[in-house]
Amino acid sequence: MSGSYGEGDPAIPELARRAHEAAERDGRGSYTDPATGYLVQCASALRQRGRCCGLGCRHCPFPREAQRAAGRAILRPLPPGF
C-alpha cells in the first residue's frame, strides 16, 4: 500500500497484515501481497538494513523522523492513537 505509516499502520489490509505476521513467524524476509502479487519486505528484513531507505516501505520499522530524514515522500498525519 503506497503511503502507509510503516509498521503497525491500521490502514494495512488485514490479509496483508496476516501474510506479514506469517512471514515474520516463519523467519522469511518478505511475503507476496495477497491483493497485488507484489513482493513486500518484512519489518525484520528492513530493520537489518540498519536505516530507512526513504522509499515508503509498507512495514518500515523506523521512526517518522528517520523516514523524513531519508527522504520518504509520503508522511501523512498520524491517526489518533497511533
The helicity comes to: 25-40%
Largest sheet: 2 strands, antiparallel
Q: By helix and strand content, what is the structural category? A: mainly alpha
End-to-end separation: 18 Å
The number of helices is: 3
List how many beta strands DSSP finds. Answer: 2
Task: Report the order of strands and helices.
Answer: HEEHH
Please, what is the average pLDDT? Answer: 85
Beta-strand residue fraction: 5-15%
> Are there runs of 5+ residues with pLDDT below 50, and where?
none
Give the overall shape. Answer: globular
Give a brief rundown of this model:
It is built from three helices and two strands, in the order αββαα. By secondary structure, the chain is mostly helical. β1 (30-32) and β2 (39-41) form a beta hairpin.
Written overview of the protein:
With 82 residues, the protein is mainly alpha-helical. It has a domain at 14-62. Helix content is 30%, strand content 7%. The chain has a two-stranded antiparallel ribbon with strand order 1-2. Strand 1 and strand 2 form a beta hairpin.
Furnish the topology, listing elements before pairings.
Blueprint: H1 14-25, E1 30-32, E2 39-41, H2 43-49, H3 64-69
Antiparallel strand pairs: 1-2
Key structural traits:
single chain; 82 residues; two-stranded antiparallel sheet; mainly alpha
